[in-house]
Every structure is written in structure tokens, then in C-alpha cells.
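Usage

Read records sequentially. Each one opens with the input sequence:
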Amino acid sequence: MKIAVACDHGAFEYKEIVKEMLTEMGHEVEDFGCHGCESVDYPDYAGPAAQSVADGKNDKGIVICGISAGANALFEYGYSNIASDTFELVNGMGMIEGAFCPHYQKEERKSFDMVCRKQNLPAIGCADQCAYVVTDEKRFFLE
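and closes with the structure output:
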């Protein structure tokens, strides 16, 4: 199987472990970066990896984000305070339906539920040290 992998600087070491495991399992791995621990923008790497799967160049994709702003990028919307002092929905790349809220266990993010209900959006809240996995068949959390 051909598998695309990508990450940001916060997950570089994890991506390298995943690549090694996939190769040992006999998979062909295409690495979209990043290629070190220097600060980078997650969408610059996750976007092309995801697009390669959508275009049929790779069978599957694994994107790993070590920072919350990057995790928001793949969803239609993310819940962030990057543009102002208060948390609000920001546009993502729209590759996964719904809105995503990283660090969901933190109190200031609880308004995420109300915002999503008002806009009738599917909502995914993810706590720290947790992964949200999206496959063709299902979606689930890993802790």
C-alpha cells in the first residue's frame, strides 16, 4: 500500500517513528515533510499529503500535528484565538466535515459547543494527548 505521511515541527519525531513502522510492515511511504524540528506551518505539509490521497496518488494518508492550530487546518472550521483575544470559528481547508476544537478539556474552550449548536455544525472536541482518527469506514479517538 502507498501511504502519504506529513507533520509539523512539533510531531517530526513521531512521524519518523511512524514511517519506520510502515516501511517495516512493507508499505511504500511518501514523506511530504516536514523534515526537521524547525518551526513550520502545518498546512504546507498536511495539505499536499491529503491532496495526494484525494488524487489517488497514495492509498492512505497519515498527518500528525504537534500544535493545535495545525490540527484545525484540515477541518472546515477550527476553534481558535489566533485572530483575536477571544475564541472563534476560523476557516480551515475543508477536507474533513465539521468544526474541530483542540485542547477541549480547557475551560475557555467550552463555548465551542454552543457555537457549533447555533451554526448546526458537526463538532469534534479533542483533549490534549489524544488523536482523532478519520478512515473511510469510521472516525474515532485514540488516547
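Summary fields computed downstream for this record:
- The mean pLDDT is 84.
- DSSP finds four helices and nine strands in the chain.
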